[in-house]
Specification:
33% strand, disordered N terminus, Rossmann fold, 701 residues, 5-stranded antiparallel β-sheet, alpha+beta
Length: 701
């Protein structure tokens, strides 16, 4: 990799470069007179009108805000240089692990700067051909491939497309032999997989399309359908859900042997019921396995009538159990892999079970047979994240990937019988992991809790408190942040930056107790864990307030927003992306009500309302306070965390900012929550974030 020299702050100051104050004017945002009342408390909501994404006034506001933001970014002298660095490093071939479907071997490949990876296949003659090219879906790269599923014999494929980053999908069915479409395109499919029942048709899930805005109106009654080939979508059979069994999330999957349909239903993002139906018997009843939403249980595999389930029922760190389908209720469950001190997840391939454990947010993988006998612990290439170890029961050679913050994703093949693995694909990226260091530390949070954090940087940095540092976090929804490689972060580190990721409470790194420690009335622990991480980095001289940026997306956007409104002097820069920022109204949009397990809602009770209002970023911006230089990012087609959250937060900050630190909002048009973005869009956003961050730290390239 070409050496790039970062002019650090001590040199920058000598050259007269200082953190940049914003001397322009923000667009005027009209204030309405909306007032809501919760438990006798009146709450003003002056920017309620920004929630109407269909309104001309809202669209004009987006346009003017983007003009201001890009006008500001255009003046940063090294922005183009960062964009070129990102583009150059991104330009390498990326190939996925192969997978077998029928007579073909399929794999994804991106030549380097293609907007989307292309799905290729090879037949028995070894000839390689394009099967699906998402780059032809739209001229501007805003339509993407969002999922695909093959029949068991590989003769049919159904694939989903997303337009403008929306969670609403279309489904196209085609014959794999000649790539000809079969039947009509299915529309308005959301939060769904596709699971084939023989070659007859497939199961999928969706909501009724809202009468108002499809991007913001509430969607809370999920439905599981069966689509029979060569019939109209309007004729699809409702299998589960709707008015009789209302659930917010429903999924259905057919077992590999095509014997059973397994249905999972939920009312929130944590906890589920489980049902099963015998597909070998006409009109067989749907039998309930688990009858409450208090715990989470997932189907893993079956051997004939023996079902294998991963559950946290009476096992906060998860256990694998088996039970006969004739009496599948929890009273009859038998442990196959018992709970341990480390969180357990399971994948299957080659007739074996692969137990993925998280030990301090780092992966350990063990291979078991279906009796629960451990075959071996798999030697991974290092400390980091291992993905894969999944495939059909007939496959004896499978694949896994390995990466961490300084190791680009590398694919290995693995023989399930011998346990031998070998390198399959190493990316030819111009990046040398030996030049970088990534280490784990543990710091103490406000209440004495020990929290792990990974800190990654280029070797040779000085711990003088002057290193530009991005502190990235999430802390919610039982989601674990395990090490992974990012081209953008590689460029950040190559320019002398530090990238730090703490495993905050609210995540799943230490099981249910860790999740519970950061949700609802414990949510403040997450923000305080984040602040403690910042304090650690400063104390150990990795960085200081003037060179620290906070970053996070979605629930992580809430993390950043809440942190800077709680402690405005914690960092110089804030980068909240697609954030949940209005905690009093989040549950009124799209599927937001499903997040109540983590957040609670303002309508629950007075205590919950007071708690949410106490940290809701939109409601805690105070006039005259000096907030960090902030660039809010969102997409105008985000129908998961609607952009109104970001719009309202940016408007509050612009109105009340008490110093010259700029407050900008960068709104991607024809973009959603993040999935399916084109390569160009990802590079442009990363360059803008890095440029904004360094410019406001007084650092130049």
């Amino acid at each position: 990799m070409k050496k790039k020299i970062l002019i650090l702050v001590n040199m920058s100051l000598a050259m007269g470069l200082m953190a940049q104050e914003f001397k322009g004017e923000y667009p005027q945002t009209r204030k309405g007179n909306q007032v809501d009342e919760f438990f006798g408390v009146k709450v003003e909501d002056p920017y309620r009108w920004l929630e109407d994404d269909l309104a001309t006034e809202t669209k004009k506001w987006v346009e003017v805000q983007n003009e201001t933001t890009f006008g500001y970014l255009d003046q940063i002298p090294f922005r183009d240089k960062l964009n070129k660095q990102l583009t150059d490093l991104w330009n390498y071939e990326r190939v996925s692990a192969p997978f077998q479907e029928g007579d073909y071997t399929y794999f994804f490949k991106n030549d380097g700067l293609q907007q989307h990876s292309v799905l290729y296949r090879q037949g028995k003659n070894g000839k390689e051909e394009v099967f699906i090219d998402p780059n032809k879906f739209s001229k501007d790269g805003t339509t993407s491939l969002a999922g695909l599923s093959f029949t068991k014999d590989g003769s049919l494929c159904a694939y989903q497309i997303s337009e403008g980053g929306s969670d609403w999908r279309k489904v196209i069915i085609m014959k794999t032999a000649d790539k000809q479409q079969v039947g009509d395109t299915l529309r308005d499919v959301k939060f769904s997989g596709i699971s084939w029942k023989g070659n007859e048709g497939f199961y999928y899930s969706s909501y009724d399309k809202p009468e108002g805005s499809e991007l913001s109106e509430m969607t809370d009654k999920h439905k599981l359908y069966f689509h029979k080939l060569h019939t109209k979508q309007s004729e699809d059979a409702l299998i589960f859900g709707g008015d009789k069994t209302p659930r917010r999330y429903i999924s259905g999957g057919v077992t590999e042997d095509q014997k059973f349909l397994v249905i999972s239903t939920a009312i929130s993002t944590t906890g589920n019921e489980l049902y099963i139906q015998d597909l070998t018997k006409p009109n067989a009843p749907i039998v309930q396995i688990l009858d409450n939403f208090e715990t989470s249980t997932d189907f893993v595999d079956n051997e004939g009538d023996e079902l294998y389930l991963l559950t946290n029922l009476n096992a906060p760190n998860n256990r694998l159990v088996k039970v006969n389908v004739k009496n599948p209720q929890p009273a009859n469950w038998v442990d196959v892999i018992s709970e341990t001190e480390n969180v357990l997840y399971i994948s299957t391939a080659g007739g074996y079970l692969f137990a993925h454990y998280m030990k301090d947010a780092l992966d350990v993988v063990q291979q078991y047979d279906h009796s629960g006998k451990m075959i071996r612990e798999i030697q991974l290439p290092g400390q980091g994240s291992a993905g894969g170890f999944s495939g059909k029961k007939s496959e004896k050679k499978i694949y896994f990937s390995f990466s961490n913050y300084v190791t680009p994703g590398t694919i290995y093949d693995y023989d399930v019988e011998t346990g031998k693995s070998s390198l399959y694909k190493k990316p030819a990226i111009n990046f040398n992991p030996e030049d970088y260091e990534s280490k784990q530390v543990f710091y103490t949070s406000h209440d004495g809790t020990k929290v792990p954090m990974m800190i990654s940087y280029k070797k040779g940095i000085k711990l003088d408190g002057k290193n530009p540092t991005i502190l990235y976090g999430y802390g919610g929804f039982n989601i674990s942040l395990t090490p992974s490689f990012s081209v953008a972060n590689a460029v950040w580190m190559d320019n002398g930056g530090i990238y730090a990721v703490p495993n905050l409470r609210g995540g799943g790194e230490y099981g249910q107790k860790w999740h519970d420690g950061g949700r609802q009335l414990n949510k403040l622990n997450v923000f305080k864990d984040f602040i403690a991480a910042a304090d650690y980095l400063k104390k150990e001289k990795y960085t200081s307030t003037e060179y620290l940026a906070l970053s996070g997306g979605s629930n992580g956007g809430l993390l950043v927003g809440a942190t800077i409104t709680m402690k405005p002097d914690v960092a110089k820069v804030a980068l909240p992306a697609v954030g949940v920022l209005d905690m009093l109204r989040y549950h009124t949009f799209t599927a937001g009500a499903g997040w109540a397990y983590d957040y609670g809602t303002a309508n629950d009770n007075k205590e919950m309302f007071d708690y949410l209002k106490g940290y809701s970023p939109v409601h805690n911006v105070k006039k005259g306070v000096c907030y960090p230089a902030t660039m809010v990012t969102t997409g105008d087609h985000d129908d998961r965390v609607v952009p109104a959250h970001s719009y309202k937060f940016a408007a509050e900050l612009q109105d009340k900012q008490g110093c010259g630190n700029p407050v900008m909002i960068r709104i991607d048009t024809k973009a959603g929550h993040g999935a399916g973005k084109s390569t160009e869009a990802i590079i442009n956003e990363a360059a803008d974030k890095f440029a904004f961050t360094l410019y406001n730290m007084g650092v130049s390239l």
